[in-house]
Amino acid sequence: PLPPVRGDIELKQVKFEYEPGRLALKGIDMSVKAGQSIALVGHTGSGKSTIINLLCRFYDITSGTITIDGHDIRDVSIPSLRSQVGIVLQDTFIFSGTIRDNIRFGRLDATDEEIEFAAKAVRAHDFIVNLPQGYDTEVQERGNVLSMGQRQLISFARALLADPRVLILDEATASIDTETELKIQEALKTLLAGRTSFIIAHRLSTIRSADNIVVLDHGNIMEQGNHEEL
Ligand code: ATP
Ligand code: MG
């Protein structure tokens, strides 16, 4: 198992092919210090999701290494890796059940107080208590009790409760109203504070606040630096 990490991540000459002979990543070098945030940007097909897939070990790299606090991620068990590397996907996963169950997912031992604390921290509490049954309101996987923005806030509360050292986030592109947008920005700040994060960023505000921005192009890093440098 992976011992508790601080969250230093290093990719060295990472190459990956989904199909033999077609490199989706052509030798990526990237390092992130514990607590820092990195925004991955680039055109469609440039390799953003592939990097995320490798970090979570949905696939194993073809060559090169990925280390977390110096441990090669291939040498640790997948459950122990995923308990410290959390992921929030773009197509927010809401399942049929109560709001409470949806937030608790992944932390079944969480108390009601912990659930509310997480929801308050990401500014989801107010809309939840205004639902007919509050935290006990039943939602459906594809139902429309929740707006897109609300679904995102639920997924943030879930991630905050799980409290991983490293957080991977595929930022949603869905258009949401300005008020919710601001809430999400605030919530994101709270969620990312003190964690190492990899964000496939679509919002300019997210890109601006990243410690490092990596621009990918056809499986290579085209340039990197912070917002002022680029
Ligand atoms: P987008 O902005 O569209 O999400 P992306 O930057 O996330 O793009 P990737 O999904 O990482 O891009 O894709 C990188 C390359 O790998 C592309 O050439 C893509 O066609 C290929 N690819 C991605 N997923 C698979 C897969 N499951 N099987 C085969 N090839 C894939
Ligand atoms: Mg993608």
UniProtKB/TrEMBL annotation:
Keyword ATP-binding attributed: yes
Keyword terms: ATP-binding, Membrane, Nucleotide-binding, Transmembrane, Transmembrane helix
Protein location: Cell membrane
Domain named ABC transporter: residues: 9-230
Top-level taxon of the source organism: Bacteria
GO molecular function, one term: ATP binding
Name of the protein in question: ABC transporter ATP-binding protein
Organism: Paenibacillus konkukensis
